[in-house]
Known about the structure:
By secondary structure, the protein is an alpha/beta fold. It has one domain (4-243): Alpha/Beta hydrolase fold, catalytic domain (Rossmann fold, 3-Layer(aba) Sandwich). It is 42% helix and 21% strand. The protein is built from 10 helices and 8 strands. It has helices at residues 43-47, 73-87, 99-110, 132-143, 148-161, 163-175, 178-181, 202-211, 227-230, 232-247; strands at 4-10, 13-20, 23-30, 51-56, 93-97, 117-121, 189-194, 215-220. It has an 8-stranded mixed β-sheet with strand order 1-2-4-3-5-6-7-8, sandwiched between helices. Helix 2 (73-87) packs across helix 3 (99-110). Residues 27-236 form the AB hydrolase-1 domain. Keywords: Hydrolase. This is Pimeloyl-ACP methyl ester carboxylesterase. It holds the Pfam family Abhydrolase_6.
Amino acid sequence: MGTERTTDTVAGAAMAAWGVPGRTPAVVCVHGAGVSSRQMAPLLPAFDGRTEAWAVDLPGFGASDAGGRRWTVPDLADALVEWTHARGLTDPCLLGLSLGAQVVAEAAARHPHDVGSVVLAGPTTDPEARSLPRLAVRLLWNNLYERPSVVTHSLRDYREAGPSRVVRSWTASRDHRIELVLPRVPQPALVVRGSRDKVCPGPWAEDVARLLPRGRLVTVPGLPHALSWAGPGRLARIVERFLAEEAR
């Protein structure tokens, strides 16, 4: 199976994505703060041929441009849904990691008729970590458990995006009040967390699932924050089981 690369202009910015074929509804994978779709790329082979899946570059990161704007989390959510329209996706499952989970939650709440279900993987940012120093400490602690390639690719993404854009992305994640958004997400929602995730603590993941009207939590033993890199096969199977259960 081949990987399709596309670029669509949404909200005045060229938004790039990579996709693999499979059954619908499609799974749209959204990366975290300061990085690109490289973070989600290992998931695509895990879905390939079974479930249609896409990894997007949010505006300003990877192969997408910023369109001369400063993007808030709600802005990114609107652009993501506009991109699904451009791709002709019906009732997609939006899967976000870290900041991507915040974008996905906003998209689901703001556009309830355009999103079929959501998966929030290692969702940020809990009220106990609303400072850049505290977030940085958590990230560094978590990196002790990540594969070295995760850190290497993240540093490459940071370098390509530039320090000001990376810091703005982290600031957007810090300032976004996801706990106020979650109760407004009407879709079936799955929260996934690695048991060794130091960025998304266990009690916070439990709160996220509780705040979601139709939420549930799955904890994956032994995995850190970057679930898409550390356990792409396991994450894909969890998502596909979730979609199958919702279809029934």
